[in-house]
Design a protein that fits this description.
The complex is a heterodimer of chains A (821) and B (124). Chain A is built from 25 helices and 27 strands. With 821 residues, chain A is of the alpha/beta class. The longest helix of chain A is centred in the first third of the chain and has 54 residues. Classes of the chains: A alpha/beta (821), B alpha/beta (124).
């Protein structure tokens, strides 16, 4: 029962009683104090509150009742159980004592066993009471702690919300640092992110520090020596928290050996900021350091374990924030990259000259580019969502052999993996031959998800192939036919004996057919050269009448089919190539005679209009059926009827004429009132642009703008000018006309200005003013001056008037020299 | 020889007709000539020749048209057909034979070879 032993105060004015009680309690291990009167008892109780008070009811001076009243009135003693020791037996006295707060009674003489039992019971009660009181205060502490925890949880909750609501790392870390500093009662804080890929630490957020101070911190970051760097380096390297309750005190041993922490630099820095207590925690991510959270306080002292717990919680939140932010950044970068790629791809697909359809496994069109829509003559919006059968039946209206195309496409779709290609022909207009190339669009697992259909327009290839086939077939026919006669008759002559007359007939036929073959080959090659652009016309101002006369001469005499040439003497010049136009006229005149078996006059006339000149060849021969007219200028086309069957021809003459006239920028056409009514071929050519050929100054300049400007400046000085766009053109002009002066550019399309000057003969030497952008050395200038350059100007804003003035001055000077006054 | 056989030559080229008739010239062969497909068909109907030498590319009916028409006409069941043509590609040869021609010769051809074909067909 020793645990219940306690302090007992005995108040009795009878020393004998005191002795007895003290002896009895003392033997049982109680700590007993005594008081001989009420006042002493109260004082003792107040000074050292006992666990139980034994109080004599009847005492001299202050009696027991009064003492009890006072004990119960004093808060420091009111809880102490009071046992009355009394000889009284009266019920009224007991009630009085209980009313005053007494716990029990012992009647004198006090039985020893009873005394001990009562005291023990009272001590038990007192202990219970104390326990209750204690638990009450413990409860208060718990409530306080709970409140604090709630606050912390609120802090963490805010963090979580900040993290989930804002993936911007800087924002999240700023919130964390702020809360960490506030909740830990610190003054400053920072959060820095560590990037292990390039070993850099970046301060992301701070609290209580100026931007300069943060920059200062950032500048001090040195992670080059993980084993031997500063505190931050230590935290990152060891992943351990560093807690310095007082930075002025000795560093802990694990830090004291680090070289970066030698000396007083760090202390100095701490002093500048005013830091006394310092706490740095690693922010971890996947067991790797991802940053550091630092809290600093101006007053020294340990950070409470609760604070450290809280900061650890924050640190883990920060790590999550960093992780989230990194993931988010990666995701954003990736999605941006994907988006860029998607946009590029979309632009490529939209801009392709090929049509593209993407069809999903249910055969529904999921993508369709503009070109495909154009092929099917439907807007993209209509085609999307159609299944392929609907698409094909929509296209079927414009499809040649739709059913065949459909089945080809359907069976191709069954074997997409083989990347089949099928041909579809859309009747249009315009008619299109499409090559549909199918390919699987494979997903991540390499499983074909969708089918791509690339629609390549092969119309022109097909047309070209068709044309080529036709041409080969026709050429083959045209060549083989005369060749059959040549080879066949030659064989007969070699293998059989024929009379002289028949031999001559065969040889004549061989000769005729051989000539026809030659003409055919020549015409064909001629046309090929023209069509391929290898043989072009050389246009120049041309008087057409001499060309027409030569054509008439070349046609020769034919009294039954005389050619009547009608062309005025003052025929304006046309832009033409005399050799090629002679070929055209010769051909038309030859046709006119060939297809006039019954004879008749042929009119060959040139008529000038305002801008064009028309040449007509009219015959009174076989004429043309109406349906032949549109095809007449096609290669190898020949009007066929019995009248003209014996008339030899290659079928290429008019095609050649058409090509030549087209290259002159003109047109050729034919009219006929019908069979037997004769035909009229007419062609139009452009009249050469009026081009002054006489003037005072020849401007040799390919920049038309500058040439016009100079022309205007010269006109203002009373000088006329002729423009030549090249040195070659200028030399031609100078060969036929005399100019008083030349304005020359040096950089010209082909021949340079320098070379042109070098080619001028002494006779045509006149003053030359050069205006150019070309940089010239002293030597070059001297050379130009010996060739007549009287002025060399660099092209610039006012060079045209200066050049005009120089030219004018040079001409006046010459005049004076020629006619000295 | 028992009797004279009639052979039709249809070609729009006079020199070709002369070449063929000079090649075939003999007392046993009576040569008739047509300058286009329609004239050839008239002569086929009127004279029912034993052999027709037909140019494929002719104004009016082509040699192919005529060969088909001959095969479809029971009166012309005994008329052999040789197509003479400048169309030398295999598809042309196939088309000619499919139309019912007995021989298909491409220009330029050997007159003596043509004569052998003619004699073979006339003896059958």
């Amino acid at each position: 029962m020793s645990e219940l032993q306690g302090k007992v105060l005995v108040i009795d004015d009878n020393p004998t009683n005191l002795e007895i009680v003290v002896a009895q309690l003392g033997r049982n291990g109680y700590q007993v104090t005594t008081a001989g009167n009420g006042a002493d008892g109260l004082a003792a109780a107040a000074q050292d509150p006992p666990d139980v008070i034994l109080l004599d009811a009847v005492m001299g001076g202050m009696d027991g009742y009064e003492v009890c009243r006072r004990l119960k009135a004093d808060p420091s003693t009111q809880v102490i159980p009071v046992v009355f020791l009394t000889a009284l037996h009266e019920q009224a006295d007991k009630i009085r004592a209980l009313n005053l707060g007494a716990s029990d009674f012992l009647t004198k003489p006090v039985d020893r066993a009873e005394l001990l039992a009562r005291v023990r019971t009272l001590l038990q009660v007192k202990s219970l009471h104390d326990g209750l009181a204690e638990s009450a205060s413990a409860q208060r502490v718990l409530v306080a702690r709970l409140t604090e925890t709630v606050d912390r949880l609120k802090g963490l909750g805010e963090m979580s919300r900040a993290i989930s609501s804002n993936l911007d790392l800087d924002h999240v870390l700023a919130a964390i640092v702020t809360r960490a500093v506030q909740l830990s009662g610190a003054d400053y804080g920072t959060a820095a992110e560590f990037d292990s890929s390039n070993n850099t630490l970046t301060y992301r957020a701070s609290y209580g520090l100026s931007p300069e101070q943060v920059r200062d911190l950032q500048s001090q970051v040195d992670l080059r020596r993980p084993d031997d760097g500063g505190i931050i380096s230590y935290v990152l390297h060891t992943r351990q928290m560093v807690h310095l309750p007082d930075v002025e005190a000795q560093m802990p041993p694990e830090l004291a050996t680090r070289r970066a922490l030698y000396g007083h630099d760090r202390q100095e820095r701490w002093r500048r900021v005013g830091t006394r207590a310092f706490l740095a925690l690693p922010l971890m991510h996947d067991a790797e350091p991802a940053g550091v959270l630092v809290i600093q306080r101006k007053t020294p002292g340990e950070f409470a374990p609760e604070t450290i717990q809280l900061l650890l919680a924050f640190a883990s939140q920060s790590s999550i924030a960093i992780q989230n932010a990194r993931l988010f950044k990666q995701l954003k970068e990736r999605s941006e990259a994907v988006e860029r790629e998607r946009q590029t791809l979309a632009a490529v697909m939209a801009g392709m000259s090929d049509g593209l359809l993407v069809v999903d496994p249910e055969s529904v069109v999921r993508y369709c580019n503009d070109r495909a829509a154009e092929f099917f003559s439907q807007p993209v919006s209509v085609l999307l969502g159609l299944n392929i059968d609907e698409l094909m039946s929509a296209a079927g209206q414009t499809m040649l052999e739709p059913s065949e195309s459909f089945s080809r496409l359907r069976s191709a779709m069954q074997e997409v993996a083989q990347r089949p290609a099928v041909e579809l022909t859309l009747s249009g207009p315009p008619r299109r031959d499409l090559l549909a190339m199918l390919f699987p669009i494979t997903g991540v697992q390499g499983v074909a998800r969708e089918t791509g259909i690339l629609l390549h327009d092969v119309t022109s290839e097909h047309d070209l192939a068709r044309t080529k086939d036709e041409l080969i077939s026709v050429v083959s026919h045209e060549l083989r036919t005369p060749l059959a006669s040549v080879v066949g008759f030659a064989e007969l002559l070699l293998k059989r004996d024929y009379g002289e007359e028949q031999r001559r007939e065969f040889l004549h036929l061989m000769y005729e057919e051989g000539r026809r073959l030659t003409a055919l080959i020549n015409d064909f090659l001629d046309l090929q050269r023209m069509e391929s652009g290898r043989q072009t016309v050389h246009l120049r101002p041309l008087d057409l009448r001499p060309v027409m006369e030569r054509a008439v001469q070349a046609a020769g005499e034919d009294p039954e089919r005389p050619i009547v040439l009608i062309a005025p003497d003052d025929l304006p010049e046309v832009d033409g190539d005399p050799d090629r136009l002679l070929q055209v006229f010769t051909n038309l005149l030859s046709n006119a005679r060939k297809y006039s078996p019954g004879g008749g006059q042929i009119r060959f006339e040139a008529v000038a209009y305002e801008r064009s000149l028309r040449v007509e060849v009219e015959d009174h021969g076989l004429g043309l059926p109406e349906d032949a007219i549109p095809r007449l200028f096609q290669k190898f086309y020949r009007v066929d009827n019995s009248d003209r069957r014996s008339i030899a021809g290659t079928g290429l003459g008019l095609a050649i004429c058409k090509q030549i006239v087209a290259e002159h920028g003109g047109r050729i056409s034919v009219k006929s009132s019908g069979l037997g009514q004769g035909s009229t071929f007419s062609l139009t050519l452009s009249i050469s642009k009026p081009n002054p050929t006489k003037g005072d100054v020849l401007i040799v300049e390919d920049d038309v703008g500058f040439a016009r400007l100079l022309e205007a400046e010269l006109a203002a000085l009373g000088l006329s000018a002729v423009r030549a766009p090249s040195a070659e053109a200028a030399l031609e002009q100078l060969a036929v006309e005399h100019f008083k002066a030349i304005a020359l550019d040096l950089i010209l399309p082909q021949m340079s200005g320098e070379e042109m000057l070098a080619r001028l003969t002494n006779g045509s030497r006149v003053p030359v003013v050069i205006a150019t952008v070309k940089e010239l050395g002293a030597q070059e200038r001297r050379e130009l001056e010996t060739r007549g350059a009287v002025g060399i100007l660099m092209k610039g804003p006012d060079v045209a008037p200066r050049a005009a003035a120089l030219l004018s001055a040079a001409l006046n000077q010459e005049k004076e020299q020629l006619h000295p006054s | 020889m028992a009797h004279v056989k009639t052979v039709l030559i249809a070609d729009d080229q006079p020199s070709l007709r002369l070449l063929v008739s000079a090649t075939l010239a003999s007392e046993e062969i009576d040569i008739i000539e047509a300058a286009d497909g329609d004239e050839a068909w008239q002569l086929l109907q009127q004279r029912r020749p034993q052999l027709a030498l037909l140019d494929v590319q002719m104004p009016g009916r082509t040699g192919i048209d005529l060969a088909r028409a001959i095969r479809a006409d029971e009166h012309l069941a005994n008329t052999r057909v040789i197509l003479l043509t400048s169309k030398a590609q295999q598809q042309d040869v196939d088309a000619g034979l499919a139309a019912g021609a007995d021989r298909y010769l491409t220009k330029p051809f050997s007159p003596l070879e043509l004569l052998e074909h003619v004699e073979q067909l006339l003896e059958e």
